[in-house]
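Standup, Tuesday
Yesterday: got the pipeline producing structure tokens again.
Today: sanity-check two examples.
Blockers: none.

Example 1:
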Amino acid sequence: MSDSKTRRARLTLAALGILVVGALVGGGVTAATLLGGDDKPPAGATPPPSTSSGPSPSQSRDALTGRTPESARRFVLEKPSGQKDGLSTGFSKGPVGAVSTAVYFWEEFAFLDDQKARQQLEAIVSPDSPGYVDEQVSGVRKLREGVGLPPSGGAPAGITFTTTVNAVRVTSVGSKVIQVWMNYDRYATKENGDLDGEPFKDQDVGLILKWQDGAWRITNEAKYKGSYPAAYFPDSNVSYRAGWRQVQHAG
């Protein structure tokens, strides 16, 4: 791969922090806040529950046993039953189906291809979020321009991107409405098959999904207020108590 292509891959990975698709804490959190290293909840977000009164008995047991996301049982995702509009489909109505929808979407999302991204977003975004698809497609085009690509088109030739969700944190924010936070890594693979030396790792993104018309749909409706999660660390019992669980794709 030429130096210019390698640089473009790295710039693309670095620029991913400006594009977050999904209703981040009900639309109240920006990607810059989430990914910029600020450990304080942003304005309008619900902070994690206070622990000033001391841990609960179950939390104390977790701390004593050293239970962590890495050592605990993994969250097993459902296996999709089909593919449509560039996305896996066929997930169940329950919370496991919501989490599976979110994870598969994030891993499959064409974040550098505006036309494919539109197809995917139109398939999964709730009709109750008008203008949201256009807003996110505009973000894809701006991202492309920011890394030296034409505003419309596919991923750069010779570069393949892979997104892997490591862990999820799931909460209910309403009747049949679920917030799914995901910790993920994103890699660029070079033309010769080697991974780029500067992957985009250990990042967080949140989606709010509601069951609608027989499937889980992404929504950014202001009436759904999510919460801001504690940081994810695979070897931390604090992260475990905060609700983070590592994920496993069904075999």
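Example 2:
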Amino acid sequence: MSGVIVTDPPKADAGDVEALAGYGVATISEAMGRTGLLGPGIRPVQQGVRVAGTAVTVLSWPGDNLMIHAAVEQCGEGDILVVTTTSPSTDGMFGELFATALRRRGVRGLVINAGIRDTQELREMGFAAWSRAVCAQGTVKATGGSVNVPVVVDGQVIRPGDVIVADDDGVVVVPREKARRTAEASEARETKEAASRAAFVEGQLGLDRYGLREKLKQLGVTYQSYDEYAAGERP
């Protein structure tokens, strides 16, 4: 497998990345029309952490972390390393030594569609990571691959410079040219949800706030007392 290392790809505006960092993965995905989510198999190795940054992408051979070493050189302040393999792999391709090198360069975290190890050490050093698997199995450094090319994870295309936001709920990718628009839409959604939250605190029901009683009626859902239901009375 040959490959290419692309240098200095375009990135989302840093201000837009920071704006997106203020919102959760669920909010951002909803703001984009329920798109951009990586699947539920990519899970955090820590809890209570949210990161946002620009993607540096890696396409590697399974069980081979050579191209992660190559990618470290391409990483800088505010980046998130995104790694996938040419076929499914759960080998532990990334650990504490990689995290040490990346943190020195200002990298905010890792998303890897493969295995990770040294998870206790990663938590202790505060390096945030999301992975497909946790596995102590080691890897080799023998096969070429690519850095900063478009990759696909769980059906989502991730390009270098796209925005990655990750938290306890998972990972979402925001195309770099949509970063500002998505941040604005996320703010609008947060404002709307804040109003609903206040209404629920006061006792309002979602059935009434969202006009769902009529929807139930349209779907033929009826109300019955327990005695009516127990007696077998059906509309």
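Quick observation on example 2: The two ends are 66 Å apart (CA to CA). Residues 179-201 form the longest helix (23 residues).
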